[in-house]
From TrEMBL, chains A, B:
SUPFAM superfamilies: Winged helix' DNA-binding domain
A Pfam family hit: Rrf2
PROSITE patterns: HTH_RRF2_2
Residue ranges crossing the lipid bilayer per the database entry: none
Biological source species: Actinomadura gamaensis
Annotated protein name in UniProt: RrF2 family transcriptional regulator
DNA sequence: GGGTCAGTACTCGGATATTGCATGTCCGAGTGTCCTCGG
DNA sequence: CCGAGGACACTCGGACATGCAATATCCGAGTACTGACCC
């Protein structure tokens, strides 16, 4: 179980778009060049972020991508959820009810989720809570050097 | 990103083996029948748990599987780690260093992990901590009805 | 000068490989238990 | 009655097939800006 690589890409794009806010929108070609990523696939991932209301895209020759909201209003959790289809880490298949082990049980016994499922859900909530407690703005602030370098390099790139 | 189904199987097997402690070892055939799972693949997953020192297997006609340790000494985290190859949820590929965006940076800038990686790691730690705080014994205690039904059904199965 | 029109550089969404991992199956070899049979 | 040996029911580990989701690429259509051209 590993997270999709697109999550890392998406988060870096969000942070970079935040840093380049005054220069937005940024075209997909430049973003792909920026991180040395496959352009078409990156575009697909960013489209997912647009569907989630995190990014917006502008068509046309001066078009490109920019944050749909101020970065302090975008949590890391939102980005992860948008890029992972909001799926749960753990998916209980109610194994306990199947086969010989589940025979002869009172129906009420399965009304509540099983202990395993509960523990998993608690752990997942802790994970989500942590992710939700950080925003793109937090990430931007964590690396002032990165912000500066980004602006400098982007200036050089666009001439 | 979804957890392998084998994790659910493994945990249910551990709990069931805990409940049936006095009747262990339990053969893979019975376990597979018990949960209506593919026998060969289940075996593979249990072998992984054996490698991690969580289960032991006994060969021979009265052989089968049993817990390698008392259930209060087996955390849910251990089972998950054993079945997921201990891989991290998030794997930083250092995208920030690649492409045009990373050019002209001081080497010292990349000495520390990037903010994204840090946030992910914190979240993952919260998840792990939660999983490590529960043991198989906890899970066993959560469902006294399940314990009783298991013993009853197993008795019927083995005659 | 201002309106029209084509060109350009982007976007989108859908369709289609390719890849890798989770899932699932099969087989040969090894080992402990039980049963049988001969002494 | 007891010990040797074979049958059996399990185990292990590796090899192989399948399915699906992540990754990657391509294409046709739409849209906004730019510049040229014409009235």
């Amino acid at each position: 179980m590993r997270m999709s690589e697109g999550v890392e890409w998406g988060l870096h794009c969000c942070v970079t778009l935040g840093w380049l806010d005054d220069r937005a929108p940024v075209s997909i070609r430049r973003l792909a060049l920026w991180f040395d990523l496959p352009q078409e696939y990156l575009k697909k991932r960013l489209q997912a972020l647009a569907r989630a209301g995190i990014l917006t895209s502008a068509p046309g020759v001066r078009g490109g991508w920019s944050l749909a909201r101020p970065p302090e209003k975008i949590t890391v959790m939102e980005v992860v959820a948008a890029l992972e289809d909001g799926l749960d880490l753990f998916c209980c298949t109610e194994v306990r009810q199947k086969g010989a082990g589940g025979e002869g049980a009172a129906p009420s016994e399965f009304a509540k989720p099983c202990g395993i499922s509960s523990v998993m859900r608690r752990a997942e909530l802790a994970w989500r809570r942590e992710l939700a407690s950080h925003t793109v703005a937090d990430l931007m602030e964590r690396s002032p050097q990165g912000a500066e370098r980004t602006r400098r390099n982007y200036l050089r790139m666009t001439g």
